[in-house]
Design goal:
Strand order of the largest sheet: 1-2-4-3-6-7-9-10
CATH class of the largest domain: Alpha Beta
Order of helices and strands: EEEHEEHEHEHHHEEHEHH
Helix content: 25-40%
CATH topology of the largest domain: Rossmann fold
Largest sheet: 8 strands, mixed
Radius of gyration: 17 Å
CATH superfamily of the largest domain: Alpha/Beta hydrolase fold, catalytic domain
Strand content: 15-25%
Distance between the termini: 25 Å
Length: 272
């Protein structure tokens, strides 16, 4: 295996440091992680994709090593600022869950920067959460208000990693532990006074037809019904979308089924 040049650093943008890593050479791929993880969730993709592409991953603000600014900021501006800083003109973008939402908002705002989208169980800005998701959010908020980070983290694992159709014992203990560590750490990152998210207006749900780049949508068969429904709607509404469902996985498909995920994602990238 060829030794890869690897860079890890911080970019000061939007008023706070953003942690990122770069490896490999060639066309650029940007990975955006899920909202229960950080950039380490892509460990099984990192060295493989970097054999073929200039591969970039970063920690979303409030996750991993990236900080939340004490002022207004837009999640979807960070990918643009990072690519500009790295002097990258266009990139394939791969986003999971909340990272998928950021990828879509980024592609709508800066379509000239996006070669293709791979959306893994993505959220979409402007959608109304179902009663089940609202209940999850309320339970999480109540646990965090009590300071019970362990229970709040386990609630996230049961909801997103296990999914509604499996028990914890039916899921890889290694995957659960890795997500536990990343999610627990995210709960410890402070939100400074004055922090204010600038949301995409109008939201993505009303603008999906604007996304003309080739798009691959990947889901896991054991994910929440909400996420599977969103993926189906995206597959219908995006002009150039294709969809694949992977077995024996819920929301973090790339961690549970890395070989299958890599196979489908690389095959899609190689055709675009």
């Amino acid at each position: 295996m060829v030794a890869l040049h690897h860079q890890a650093s911080f970019l000061n943008t939007q008023g706070a440091p953003l942690y990122y890593e770069v490896a490999g050479q060639g066309d650029a791929i940007l990975f955006i992680h899920a909202g229960i993880a950080d950039s380490r969730m892509w460990d099984e993709q990192w060295s493989i994709f970097a054999q073929h592409y200039q591969t970039i991953r970063y920690d979303i603000r409030g996750f991993g090593r990236s900080q939340i600014p004490a002022g207004p900021f837009a999640y979807h501006a960070d990918p643009a600022n990072l690519l500009c800083f790295l002097k990258i003109e266009r990139a394939h973008v791969i986003g999971n869950s909340f990272g998928g939402k950021i990828a879509i908002d980024f592609a709508l705002t800066y379509p000239e920067l996006v070669t293709s989208l791979t959306l893994v169980a993505p959220s979409v800005s402007g959608t109304t959460p179902s009663p089940a998701i609202q209940q999850f959010a309320a339970e999480e908020e109540a646990l965090l208000a009590k300071g019970d980070l362990e229970a709040a983290t386990e609630l996230n694992l049961r909801t997103w990693v296990d999914g509604p159709r499996r028990t914890p014992k039916q899921v890889s203990s290694m995957v659960r532990q890795r997500v536990y560590d990343m999610q627990y750490h995210a709960f410890t990152i402070p939100v400074p006074e004055g922090a204010e998210e600038i949301e995409l207006q109008p939201p993505a749900i009303s603008r999906l037809a604007e996304l003309h780049m080739p798009t691959l949508i990947i889901t896991g068969e054991y994910d929440l019904p909400d996420m599977l429904f969103i993926a189906q709607e995206l597959a219908k509404q995006l002009p150039h979308a294709q969809q694949v469902a992977l077995p024996d996985a819920a929301h973090v498909v790339s961690m549970e089924q890395p070989e299958l995920f890599n196979q489908h994602a690389l095959a899609f990238l190689q055709t675009h």
